[in-house]
Hints:
disordered N terminus; Serine Threonine Protein Phosphatase 5, Tetratricopeptide repeat; 7 strands; Tetratricopeptide repeat protein; 2 domains; alpha/beta; two-stranded parallel ribbon; TPR-like_helical_dom_sf; repeat; TPR_2; 5-stranded mixed beta sheet
Amino acid sequence: xxxxxxxxxxxxxxxxxxxxxxxxxxxxxxxxxxxxxxxxxxxxxxxxxxxxxxxxxxxxxxxxxxxxxxxxxxxxxxxxxxxxxxxxxxxxxxxxxxxxxxxxxxxxxxxxxxxxxxxxxxxxxxxxxxxxxxxxxxxxxxxxxxxxxxxxxxxxxxxxxxxxxxxxxxxxxxxxxxxxxxxxxxxxxxxxxxxxxxxxxxxxxxxxxxxxxxxxxxxxxxxxxxxxxxxxxxxxxxxxxxxxxxxxxxxxxxxxxxxxxxxxxxxxxxxxxxxxxxxxxxxxxxxxxxxxxxxxxxxxxxxxxxxxxxxxxxxxxxxxxxxxxxxxxxxxxxxxxxxxxxxxxxxxxxxxxxxxxxxxxxxxxxxxxxxxxxxxxxxxxxxxxxxxxxxxxxxxx
Length: 397
């Protein structure tokens, strides 16, 4: 049985690297190590082509003319009858005014999210914060302690967390004393997904580091590894305590086959967050590449004790079953993966394909519709919509 369990994790480790986007999960078991100074031998600029674009932290929260006009026309008029926080919320998320849609494909700055009217949770938090600060409101960022979501793109696997924002009272009102009754939390997940969840306050420099780490991960998806390096370097400089930026740097070095440099970056990540399964997984690969087999095996045993079945394990087995025309087996495996991640669109899509190949057209339609509803990018939404429409036409025939 132990040998079989090793094969499960081996498949994931051979499949690809693991990055973390949007937010890190803080360790609850081991006290984190504080990184006071960034190690001098961590960066190797000479390995990477210069960035084709400037990377400027202040631009992330910049408020452009369109945003200022929005405040003047859509928000100021409400202030006679409601609070600043409620006026901003109404203007941003009321269907009659600015209609925002969730899009996880690209982490946007405040002005980009406002212009596109879409963004992932971090983009929308950044945009809301920029508008709130322009109005003179105080803001507090929060990590929401929810279960990590997993996704993938080619050989890259992503674990993502969630952030929201608390709008405080207008600055300098009533002697500037905090009043919890005047605070408003704005979240971009349905209330049932975050109800009763605990939160951890975050500083703005951590939000900046998250943004840059996201941009690094998105650059890697587009095979822009050189650009990813520069985003990651700036993420670490923004918040030296943000462990997952070191993990991303480690993955970048792994892609360049600079395994000793990868080891050094991942070692820092694990000093900050010793319980990170994401970093541990990448460290196992790095140790194996360095020929340090005993250390790799010991760390793999630790990983197996924490995570016997890696993310996407049953899904990948289901895809293989589909390739063998074993559709009943595939359906069982996709359902098993959905028990761990009930909202992930790709799992529902493939379950719908399994139902379709079994002639279960009504069930297939249901799964395709769920996949469409849970899609997080416009590209996936378009794909699932087209598949759903074709199935609908087929059922009518």
